[in-house]
Amino acid sequence: MSKTKTTKTGSAQVPHENGRTRPALRFDRAAAYAPAPEASDIVTIKARQGHFIDGEFVESAEGNSFETINPATEEVLGEVAKGSAEDVDRAVKAARKAYEKVWSKLPAAERGKYLFRISRILQERAREFAVLESLDGGKPIRESRDVDVPLAAAHFFYYAGWADKLDFAFGGRTTAPIGVAGQIIPWNFPLLMAAWKLAPALATGNTCVLKPAETTPLTALLLAEVLQQADLPPGVVNIVTGFGDTGAALASHKGIDKVAFTGSTEVGKRIQRTAKARHLTLELGGKAANIVFADCALDQAVEGIVNGIYFNQGHVCCAGSRLLVEESVHDRLIQKLEDRIQTLIVGDPLDKNTDIGAINSKSQLATIQRYLQAGVEDGCEIHQSRRTLPKKGFWCAPTYFTGVAQSSRIAQEEIFGPVLAVMTFRTPEEAIEKANNTMYGLSAGIWTDKGSKIFKMLSQMRAGVVWANTFNKFDPASPFGGYKESGYGREGGAHGLAAYLEVK
Ligand code: ADP
């Protein structure tokens, strides 16, 4: 294992183990694969884009805008409108009018047809969306192409099917839409989060005002073009771009009936205090434990761990950021993990070989680096990939810490970066206790050969989603959401319908 005691974080590259130089890696994937960049000319980004309100792109009332950049190169991609309270108000009024005059009056099957159409267009334009997502957010094209975009289309497709079957979803009880939904989303899955929010809201007969994250507004605006292409009636979906103050203006607007928020626990709590809407769902942070038993298929578990924390730069609220490994296999597992992280390719998000892309923003990189520092200060041992990181842009080497105490900040707080805290356990009871020892409760993973062990653990774990012998698997039909400070309400599946309906 490479170890470093240095407090200088982000570039630790000391290739020694017990004073010996580590043998050369068996193969170097970066050298083995020639670059395979996805062409970006399929995407045309307008120099300046407005909000999408009442079916049209409009300038912000005060004429303000801000730049959105490519975090892998720091190049400016374009400017988007900076939403003010007045812009939010205009969008809410458009959504109200569309709700009362059009959307709530439409037969349910007709609503479904719009959603099917949106899903089909998303599939047709999938490559464009994938490239734009990677340009604006820094995630590898493999992830945006194979996960974000297909899942976004699948959500519209899934909820389209529910639109005219709502009477069957709640055991004969009658349902009614809530009204206008204000939806605020983060930057880690920009298009997918928009689909998670919009598809169930529209299927159930609500209209929406969506506020994308400030660092990743572009795919939401491209989705607005898709909505135009699908002839969605004006005002049914409105998109206002901006920063936290724009989100705050939306969340506290008295003209909305529902707030749906995904983001940090801190902002979620603030929204809880200021929201005037009757309905609120919050999907907040996480500190998922991946629990690895000695009897599992270790190589498979290593892939699951890597998928859970390193792919997508750890920018996932359900990331497996804590590794709990049975003491008897700790050393073997760590050696395998060490070998694996040295093969991970960090670099150009548009390259199809890339495993780990850019950190989404300069400020997020600074946050991650503060946590790397904290881990070292708390006495944990830091281990990092020895690959050279690109010079421009925002990058973090895949990292894991061993010798981590449960009380350490890196074991308790959400880092939202490619940083893993490794701890050990001896009995299933100890694993459960440690897994539950967090203020969060969004997700977890269990790796074992024994089905009975999985069920025993499941019944005692306080996490909304528990994956067994896999990690980070999503399907529109299965609900997602958390316990404790990970928020409340469920998204996805039939549960996700309830969040947008009055059930009588
Ligand atoms: P992260 O820490 O992951 O960036 P945030 O919770 O800060 O998550 O951001 C998630 C979303 O919430 C973004 O769209 C952001 O602009 C928005 N936001 C930030 N502050 C507020 C606020 N006070 N009220 C409402 N929305 C906010």
Describe what you observe in this structure.
The protein starts with 15 loop residues before the first strand and ends with a strand. The protein is globular. The protein has 16 helices and 22 strands. Mean pLDDT is 92; it is low at 1-27. The protein folds into 2 domains: 48-284 and 486-503, Aldehyde Dehydrogenase, Chain A, domain 1, CATH 3.40.605.10; 286-468, Aldehyde Dehydrogenase, Chain A, domain 2 (3-Layer(aba) Sandwich). With 504 residues, the protein is α/β, with parallel strands linked by helices. The protein has a 7-stranded mixed sheet with strand order 16-17-18-15-14-19-20, sandwiched between helices. Strands 11-10-9-12-13-21 form a 6-stranded mixed sheet, with helices on both faces. Adenosine-5'-diphosphate binds next to helix 8 and helix 9.
